[in-house]
Amino acid sequence: MELQLRGITKSFGPKKVLHDVSFAAYTGCCVGVLGRNGAGKSTLFNLLTNVLLPSSGELLLDGVPLGETFPVAVKRRMGSLINQGYLVEELTPIEYLQFVARIYELPDAHTRIESLLAHLLEDYDTVRTKRLSSFSTGMKQKVAVASCLLHRPELLILDEPFNGLDVFSVDRMLALLNSYRPQAITFVSSHNLTHIEKVATHLLILDESEVKYWGTMEDFLQGQQAYLNDALFQLLQPTTASTQDLTWLTNQS
Ligand SMILES: Nc1ncnc2c1ncn2[C@@H]1O[C@H](COP(=O)(O)OP(=O)(O)OP(=O)(O)O)[C@@H](O)[C@H]1O
């Protein structure tokens, strides 16, 4: 699969959030999407999943323009977690994933559901019969990610999938994403650069509504002999924080 963005621009009223975003990603790529708060990462993901329409430019899948409404056949090839996902909390995790499996018309998803949940959820035997409403934030996040993978999407879009996960759960999630990577084009956003370093093959760095960097992780780090954290700081050169008088906050008296 090849996903191509050609000159994608997105504005909300007079505010241009993304300007002339162009790149092409292929099966096997895991694109780490980075940028400051408000850089346009979620907006990009919403465009990739047809939740939002671009103001101009086009998306092409295997050379075919996707148009205003993506064909259902294309949507079936996608799995996405955006804006923390949505779960039906009255259901148990198994019931919820069975519901998702029916949407994708998976004939027998039982094995997939059990193995995904058992991999991601600690204490699975205890929590498997509990309603999602009783789950912690991190547990819900794992079920949401599992629901994106169930139908083995060729395009996997995960907005902040590590949110709410403890260090052990992050390791499991990274292992899962790394093992899945060869089968799909994966997009992952995170503010945790250590996680991105461990999963991304490519980086898309957004800043001031434009693509500041698009290319392989290797090329980005090469020559800089730096960790992603340092390299990103160098690239984005954050303006020094304004000096506010915060003595009222720290004053003991
Ligand atoms: N529906 C909307 N209407 C108006 N402005 C919007 C809308 N959605 C996003 N924006 C604006 O677009 C910009 C990019 O937002 P977006 O959520 O894509 O950023 P982000 O990179 O995902 O940020 P964060 O790292 O904080 O999650 C922000 O300035 C935001 O206020």
From TrEMBL:
Keywords: ATP-binding, Nucleotide-binding, Transport. SUPFAM superfamilies: P-loop containing nucleoside triphosphate hydrolases. It comes from the Bacteria. Transmembrane segments: none annotated. The keyword Cell inner membrane does not apply. Residues 3-233 form the ABC transporter domain. InterPro entries: AAA+_ATPase (IPR003593), ABC_transporter-like_ATP-bd (IPR003439), ABC_Transporter_VariousFunc (IPR051782), P-loop_NTPase (IPR027417). The keyword RNA-binding does not apply. It holds the Pfam family ABC_tran. SMART domains: AAA. One of its GO terms (molecular function) is ATP binding. This is ABC transporter related. It comes from Hymenobacter roseosalivarius DSM 11622.
